[in-house]
Amino acid sequence: MDLNTPLITTLLVAAVLLFWVVGAYNRLVALRTTIGAAWAQVDEPLTQRHELLTRLVAALREPLQDDHPTLDAVLAASAQAHAASGAVRPRPSEARTVASLVLAEQVLATARSRLAAVLDARPELRTIDGMAGPLAELEAIEQRLAFRRQVFNQASHQYNEAVGQFPTRLLTPFFRFGAAGRL
């Protein structure tokens, strides 16, 4: 037996291990980048919805003089959701910030449902000049958001699966790959 055989074997094992670490790292980075791209597609309609809700509430201020608390709740919840989406923007794969956005979205959904109840109780408000367009646009934005959330959640799921798989899971603490949040 030659003395170089153990050395060659050790070098081969080290090379295989190094290639595996580099491959696993690159795969996780690529999946995290996919989450970022999916988030960019979610962020756009979130911003559009915030701007539209601001205009819609302003248009309803005069006709709904007796129901300003409902309008204020929609505005506050929209601002909170917009701020939460801004916090997600720099690190869309961070579960904590995505969880904050999910909570803000729930608050906004509650406020919007109260506004919808007010509009349903007073159908004449839906016929005010310029009101039908923004309401239809709001519905279209919500439909786009639903689809784009699915894409984001799918990207997060794939990333989380990769982070949780053995032996890649052994690398995640060293390179600070944590679980991604879902919308």
Second-tier CATH architecture? Up-down Bundle
SSE succession: HHHHH
Mean pLDDT over all positions:
93
CATH top level is Mainly Alpha
Rg is 24 Å
Task: Note the beta-strand portion.
Answer: under 5%
Number of E-type strands: 0
How many structural units, i.e. domains?
1
The CATH topology comes to de novo design (two linked rop proteins)
Backbone shape: rod-shaped
Percentage of residues in helical conformation: over 70%
Task: Detail the poorly predicted runs.
Answer: none
Major sheet description:
none
Question: What is the CATH H-level superfamily?
Answer: LemA-like domain
Straight-line N-to-C gap: 60 Å
Annotation field: number of helices = 5
Class inferred from helices and paired strands? mainly alpha
Q: What's the SSE blueprint?
A:
Layout: H1 4-60, H2 68-88, H3 95-121, H4 132-164, H5 172-175
Helix pairs in contact: 1-2, 1-4, 2-3
Short description:
With 183 residues, the protein is an all-alpha fold. Helices cover 78% and strands 0% of the residues.
Polypeptide structure, described:
- There is one protein chain.
- Helix content is 78%, strand content 0%.
- It is built from 5 helices and no strands.
- It has helices at 4-60, 68-88, 95-121, 132-164, 172-175.
- Helix 1 packs antiparallel against helix 2 (68-88), helix 1 (4-60) packs antiparallel against helix 4 (132-164) and helix 2 packs antiparallel against helix 3.
